[in-house]
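Continuing from the previous page of notes. For each protein in this section, the sequence appears first, followed by its structure tokens. Read the first protein now.
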Amino acid sequence: MLNWSEISTVLLDMDGTILDLHFDNHFWLEHFPRRYSEKHGISVEEAKQKFIGHYQELTGTIEWYCLDYWTEFTQMPISLIKREVQHLIQLREDADEFLTALKQSGREVILVTNAHPDALSLKIERTQLDKYFDVLYSTHEFGVVKESQLLWQRLQAKQGFDVNKTLFVDDSLPVLKSAQKYGIKHILAVENPDSKKPANSFSDFTSISDYRQLTKAILANPIK
């Protein structure tokens, strides 16, 4: 699986990797189109068609993740509307044990999310996920997203991690490939980002559906 004796830094995605992606999928694919349809007097299906096409156009860009962009584009207060379904924001069932083991083992644990800072703040408020991490980064701070090689260059310049001793965990194939291209040696894919949807399969990367399988090995190989 993973050689934990070679890993001293762990870079973790947030949505789907630490948090259940169900909140985000429900918000963007169901709740927000419904609220938009109510405001503009169109059907929910018409609203979905309007946004799904635009979502696809922006995939892999910082605008896709930017709440300011979507607030301006829709003329609706996205951050406030998210709070209407904030009860759906939750840690993955296997996240607490995994993150606690990483901290106990002495590893540097860093959050690297494409989420907008306001989205990150809401999720910290709801889950207190910040307690598990040494540092938390929204890629908006760097002006580029994880799909871009520029992000990794800027992140490494700021954080100073050793690519040969770093593990990166994410649920997005394009992002995983971007990290691999940059030279991060240890890569782990998450098969089941959304608890309400079927698992994904990965042929190019080691993958996992339950972090609790890793706990014993993490604690058996602490950073000295």
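Done with the first. The second protein uses the same format. Note its length before scrolling.
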Amino acid sequence: MKQVKVYTTTYCPYCKKAKELLKALHVPFEEVDVEQDTQLRDELIERYQWQTVPLITFDEELIGGFDDLNRLHSEGKLMEKLGE
């Protein structure tokens, strides 16, 4: 299974939804809180051209946000994308 990272902030409702979906599917993930780390946020924006949270990656490949994660799940492609 690919390494999943979810970059979040504490006040983001879509971050919570993304984490809940991954937990419900028993997908292990690392949560990285970027709320106070502006340097990391800037690095993520530059690397992925993505400015909102959650920012979700599988093995450092940008998946997108909650809507993208949920779409993969709804289409039955999430576990395949994870290498399961």
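What the second structure shows: The first helix runs from residue 13 to 24. The chain has four helices and four strands. We return to this in next week's lecture.
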